[in-house]
């Protein structure tokens, strides 16, 4: 199973600041298989980014995704009050040399809290 | 507008079978999408359970595969989840979701299932 490691675990920022969340894969993966979600308390996850850098329908352009090797980033250019939530990265892939078919895995999440 | 609605018993006894239904409105489950189940234990992260394509083809999380069945009921436009031999570790909010581009853009609101005697 490919492991996704998100950092930091908690990020404390103020509205108006810039946030950068990271997600590292345990092996090289295709960026088309990486997505980001936002989850507010008591709500279902909401798709923000798919294919590492494509915004989902209706997502504000302050959200952007990028990739460098096995490191994926989600950037929120200017935080709004409604952006404080938990963020998950998600990958579709297969461990090299492994027989089980590809599967979906999630990172452990980054909590973005108000400073 | 596509909407997904999970429904189930809410409480299941240990060693029993957890059965959930996802009712889909605004779209046909016979369309070219994957339909997935994802769960989230209270206060914890997300875990993919498995998926079914409109053809009936399924893929499962290897860690759950021996206990899971996901299927389509095209006559009712519903997706079902059965998880057998449950324990307290299976207590979670269970979500159904519609997949495209290896991501899930549409989710149900989730259904909490508690495993307890």
Description:
- The complex is a heterodimer of chains A (115) and B (117).
- The termini of chain A are far apart.
- Chain A is mainly β and 115 residues long.
- In chain A, 0% of the residues lie in helices and 50% in strands.
- In chain A, strands 2, 4, 5, 6, 9, 10 and 11 form a seven-stranded mixed beta sheet that branches. Chain A has a four-stranded antiparallel beta sheet with strand order 1-3-8-7, with no helix packed on it.
- Chain B has 117 residues and is mostly beta strands.
- Chain B is built from no helices and eleven strands.
- In chain B, the strands form two sheets. In chain B, strands 2, 4, 5, 6, 9, 10 and 11 form a seven-stranded mixed beta sheet that branches.
- Chain B is globular.
- The mean pLDDT of chain B is 96.
- Classes of the chains: A mainly beta (115), B mainly beta (117).
Fold topology:
The complex is a heterodimer of chains A (115) and B (117).
Chain A: E1 4-7, E2 10-13, E3 19-25, E4 34-39, E5 46-50, E6 54-55, E7 63-68, E8 71-76, E9 86-93, E10 103-106, E11 110-114
Chain B: E1 3-7, E2 11-12, E3 18-25, E4 34-40, E5 47-53, E6 58-60, E7 68-73, E8 78-83, E9 92-100, E10 103-107, E11 111-115
Parallel strand pairs in B: 2-11
Antiparallel strand pairs in B: 1-3, 3-8, 4-5, 4-9, 5-6, 7-8, 9-10, 9-11
